[in-house]
Design brief:
about 325 residues, alpha/beta, seven-stranded parallel β-sheet, 8 helices, about 30% helix
Length: about 325
């Protein structure tokens, strides 16, 4: 990997990925591309590569790479806020942006590793296998499903691997605002001495995965010998009550949950990745359990950055 493009590279996962690539491949040319709508330059402080401020769904930026070689594109740029209800905007930015990436990759003979999402599965109460996708609950999940379909059209031209990220948390998510993980939002409440608020009775479960593991899986995905989509989770669901226990442990507090009624009939009560295909294809397994990830996140990052976190002041 001599020449790398990371789209969405100032965002949560993208910035973590950019720094890890820079660390592992110090002689590589890394270009980050982002339009900074849902991120900040502060996530890239210390980055030594190039930064291109553009929306991947536009086409004017493509001329920047006309004379430049590319070996691999990590495509993480998209609208990820599930509260965005403008269906045309969601589809245009996510799908047309991906179409541009795929065409550029074909021109450069570059591999593409792209962010799909567990949102393609919709509501299910069993471990989610890659073959279970196609019934998303919202336009965001639908846009990712169409991206998966589009990727299959390029299977004979370039390597394309999609990653269905489950519930990712960790350093760099602050600028996602309300779309930041529940782990981060609960931390902010508890750091201010408030009881953490969750729906009755905190037994809803999510397959939370620490961003450090997600970055490892994303880099490792290039080792796939086939064009495919892969679940990226831990395979072990964790309840919100267990999350609160881990946060209390990290903070040295004893705050009890504040349970309240769930007003949403479309709410996902359960997510769990079936990791069989992922382990077989690229040999990935998470290093951090959810509890271990929370402890590392809080102690090594959040508690040392309170002055940078207005929500926790």
């Amino acid at each position: 990997m001599k020449n790398i493009l990371v789209t969405g590279g100032s965002g949560f996962i993208g910035s973590n990925l950019a720094f890890e690539l820079e660390k592992r491949y110090p002689n590589t040319n890394i270009t980050v591309m982002d339009d900074f709508r849902g991120s900040s330059f502060k996530n890239l402080l210390g980055f030594k590569g190039d930064v291109l401020a553009s929306n991947v769904a536009d086409q004017d930026w493509l001329k920047t790479f006309e004379a430049k070689p590319l070996d691999v594109i990590f495509h993480l740029a998209s609208i990820t806020d599930t509260t965005v209800l403008d269906e045309r905007k969601m589809m245009y930015d996510n799908v047309e942006g991906f179409r541009n990436i795929l065409q550029l990759a074909c021109d450069k003979k570059a591999d593409v590793i792209y962010a799909s999402s567990a949102a393609v599965y919709g509501t299910q109460d069993t471990p989610m296998k890659e073959s279970d996708a196609g019934q998303p609950n919202n336009i965001y999940g639908f846009s990712k499903w169409i991206m998966d379909n589009l990727a299959r059209q390029y299977k004979d031209e370039i390597k394309v691997v999609g990653l269905r990220y489950f519930n990712v948390f960790g350093p760099g998510e602050f600028y996602k605002g309300p779309a930041a993980s529940m782990i981060y939002q609960l931390y902010c409440q508890m750091k201010q001495g408030k009881r953490p608020r969750v729906f009755k009775f905190g037994e809803q479960k999510r397959d939370f995965i620490y961003v450090k593991d997600v970055v490892q899986a994303t880099i490792q995905a290039r080792e796939s010998k086939e064009n495919t989509v892969l679940n990226i989770g831990t395979g072990t669901p964790t309840s919100f009550n267990e999350v609160i226990e881990a946060l209390n442990e990290a903070l040295g507090t004893h705050l009890e949950p504040d349970y309240f009624d769930n007003p949403y009939d479309f709410y996902q009560n359960f997510t769990q990745a079936d990791m069989t295909h992922t382990k077989k294809t690229i040999g990935f397994s998470n290093r951090y359990s959810t509890r271990e990830g929370i402890l590392d996140y809080v102690r090594q990052y959040l508690l040392t950055q309170d002055k940078k976190n207005p929500c926790c002041s």
